[in-house]
Design a protein that fits this description.
The protein is an alpha/beta fold. The chain folds into 2 domains: about 190 residues, Ribosomal Protein S5, domain 2 (2-Layer Sandwich); about 240 residues, 3-Layer(aba) Sandwich (Rossmann fold). The strands form 6 sheets. Strands 12-15-18-11-19 form a 5-stranded parallel sheet. Strands 1-2-4-3 form a 4-stranded mixed sheet. Strands 5-8-9-10 form a 4-stranded mixed sheet. Strand 6 and strand 7 form a beta hairpin. The relative contact order is 0.10. The model has no long low-confidence stretch (mean pLDDT about 90).
Length: about 525
Amino acid sequence: MSLCLVQSRALLGLEAASVTVEVHLANGLPSFALVGLADVEVKEARERVRSAIQNAGFEFPNNKRIIVNLAPADLPKDSGRFDLPIALGILAASGQIDGARLAGYEFAGELSLSGQLRPVRGALAMALPAIRSTPAPKLVLPGDSAREAALVPDAEVYGARDLADVVRQFLPEGAADAAEPVDPVSDGWARVVPATAGPPPSGPDLCDVKGHAGAKRVLEIAAAGGHSLLMVGPPGSGKSMLTQRFAGLLPPMSVVEALESAAIASLGGRFDPGRWMCRPTCSPHHTASAVALVGGGSPPRPGEISLAHHGVLFLDEFPEFARSALEALREPLETGTITISRAARRSEFPARFQLIAAMNPCPCGYLGSTQKACRCTPDQVARYQGKLSGPLLDRIDLHIEVPSVAAEQLLEAPEGEPTEPIRRRVLAARERAGQRQGKPNQSLQGAEIDRHAGLDPAALQFLHKAATRLAWSARSTHRTLKVARTIADLEGAYAVQTAHLAEAIQYRRALQAPG
C-alpha cells in the first residue's frame, strides 16, 4: 500500500482536535515533504523520523517521494507529538507493517534519533476527548505519558518504550509469526492501568502558626465559602506561612475536578502523578507578566490562574505586580474562565481559583505598626496603595490585617488549633451550602443571592446603613452578603442574622490611609 492513514490529536488550548496523518509514497525524485500548517517543531520531524526508523532496524524508503499531510490543513500543529504517527505511516505505506491494523488506535510521541520515545505534553488532555468518541480509540503513547493518560476513567492506554515496541504490534501476519520472540521482561509494550491512589500527601499544619486567631478565622471562612482574601501586614507577620497552610483546609477534590486540574497542568508540562487529587497552589513571582499570569502565546498556553484551577493562587507582594497583570485578573475572578483571543483562533481556559493576596501597608511595611516606626511619606503610601485599583479590590471578598506577633507569644505560646478540626468545620459548612444551592456561596449570582442569603428586616436595615456609610458598590454589598451566608453556614444557622452580617462587614475594610 502506497497510502496510509494514522490517527493522532493536536492541542489547541484544552481542546485535543483529531488529526489524520496521511502518508503517500510515490515514484519520482526522492524527497520528504510535510504539509498541513505544521510548526517548525513538526517540520523537523523529517530528520528525526528518518534516523529513528533506520536506527530501529527498519528500512526508510529513500528512493521514494514521500508526502505527509496533517489534516485538517487549517488547524495549527506544534511540538514533536506527530513523530510516532508519521513514522508508522511511512512504515505502513512501504509495506513493513499492516496499515489496516492501525485502525482504532491513536498515536502520539516524540522520537529520538535512536528510536526511543520521549514524553509529550498534554497526554491527559488528549485522552479526555478520546473516550467521548464512539467507538473510543486505543491510545498509544510513550511510557510516562501513558501513565498520565491512564488516569482518565475507561481509557484504554498502551505505553511503549521505543519505535520497535510499537512496530512489533502491527507487523503483517506472516512477518509477525516469523519474528523472533521477545523477552517479556525487556518488552517495552504494555497496557497501562492507573495505579491505586493513596491518601494525598499532607501539607504543613496550622498548629505551627502561633497567635493570629483572627487570621485563622478568616481562612476558615474563605475555605468554607470559596472566597478570595487580601492580607495586609508588616514584613514577617506570617502572611506567607498562613497561606501555605490554606490548601489543607479545602475539601478533597472530586475525580472530575482532579481531571480538569491535571489536564491543564499536563498542557503546561507540569503534571506530577504524585500530586494526583491534590489541590494546586501556584505562587508566581511578582515580576510575572500578564501573559504568564492569565495565559497567552501562539498557540495559546494556560497561565498561572488556569494552573491554579480548583486550587489556590497566592500573589505575594501584591502591589508589586505589573498593573496590566493585576487588571487582567478582574474578569476571571468574576467568571471563573479566561478567553485568549488571537486573529485566527480563540481558546478558553477554566480559571476557578481562590485568590490569596498578601501585601505590606506601605513601601517600608510598617505603617500602623506598634513595633517599628513607618518612614514613608503620605505621598509614598498613597502611591503604593494606589497601585491596586478600586475595581480589583472590589472583587476580593475578604480584607484583613495580619499584625506582627510579639516575641513573648512567638516563643512561649502553645501550639494553635490544628488543621483537621478546622477542616471538618469547613466540610460541614460546604455540605450545607451544597445541599441548599448545589454550589459554594462565592458562586451565587443575581437572584440566587436574594433566595439563599436573604435577610430579616433588622439585618436588612443594618446592611443599608453600612453600605451607605462605607460607600459600597452593588458588588461589595453582594459579596458581603455571600460572606455572611458562609458565616451562618459555619454556625449551622438556617438564616443570615445581624451578627453574621456584622462580622462579614468587618472583613471588607479599606487599606489604612496615611495619617
